[in-house]
Amino acid sequence: MKFSRGLSALILTLFFNASLSAQYLYKDELIFNPAFNAEVEKLGLELYEKTGISLRLVMLKELPNKMNIVEYEKELMKDFNSSTILLTFSEMDSKVDILANPPSLYEYFDKKQILSPVASPVQAFTMALFYSDGFDSFKEIASSHGGTIIPLLAQKAKAGEVLGKYSGSMFNGYADIAEQIASSKGVVLENAVGNANQNSIFAVKVLFYGFIVYGIFLYIKRKLYVKRQKNESK
Fold it and tell me: Which residue has the higher pLDDT, 56 or 209?
């Protein structure tokens, strides 16, 4: 009997601790890294204590039952009674989304900016030049930048670095949402990432600009070559 009670107490303790540790990293089917879990929990707890908003991160291998990501988030949102924001990533579906309940929470952060596939205004302007089919689409593309998740997810990674890319990208976005909420609420987060959060984005910008400069170099080189060939043929 003593053994059974002791075992039951141990199981309850483990279950209770697991519930606590999964409060803000609400689902994790990908990373399984205690350090990553601890960072999310620390920032999520501080944000909740200072603003009353629960920011929960969901990391999925694949969306269940062929659901789209918004349907899944709406189902998951039924588990929560308090003000909650879900940041959800599904690896196999290549989907990222943010859902807030109540919808009034959207006023505290810029969802479009966070989920933008473009990191910088220069990059957005360049893409608008190439891909817009009119002034309205040019303006829309050029104004969409500042993404803190998708530009990092889009980077190629070696086989052993994929999980690191996922955790870095999603924590980048998680921290961005938390810091925007804190700024809107007029509070300071001691566990905010701040400038360190921008280092990875800066690396993406450098890589992108490098490709642009290299492309311009090749274009000029080609033009000069064609011109030289014409002159020689005269």
Answer: 56
Question: Cis omega before residue 102 (within 30°)?
Answer: yes
Say which residues have a Cβ less than 8 Å from residue 134's Cβ, sequence separation at least 6.
none
Residue 21 has pLDDT above 50, yes or no: no
* Angle, alpha carbons 20-23-28 (nearest 5°): 110
* Residue corresponding to tokens 């107490």: 9
Look up residue 160 and give its DSSP letter.
Answer: G
46 pLDDT more than 80: yes
For residue 55, the cross-strand partners are 85
Q: What percent of the chain has pLDDT over 90?
A: 55
Cut 0.70: pTM above it: yes
For 38, 71, 216, 217, the CA distances from 230, given in Å and listed in that order, are 65, 61, 21, 20
What pLDDT, in 10s, does the model give residues 103-125? 999 999 999 999 998 887 777 67
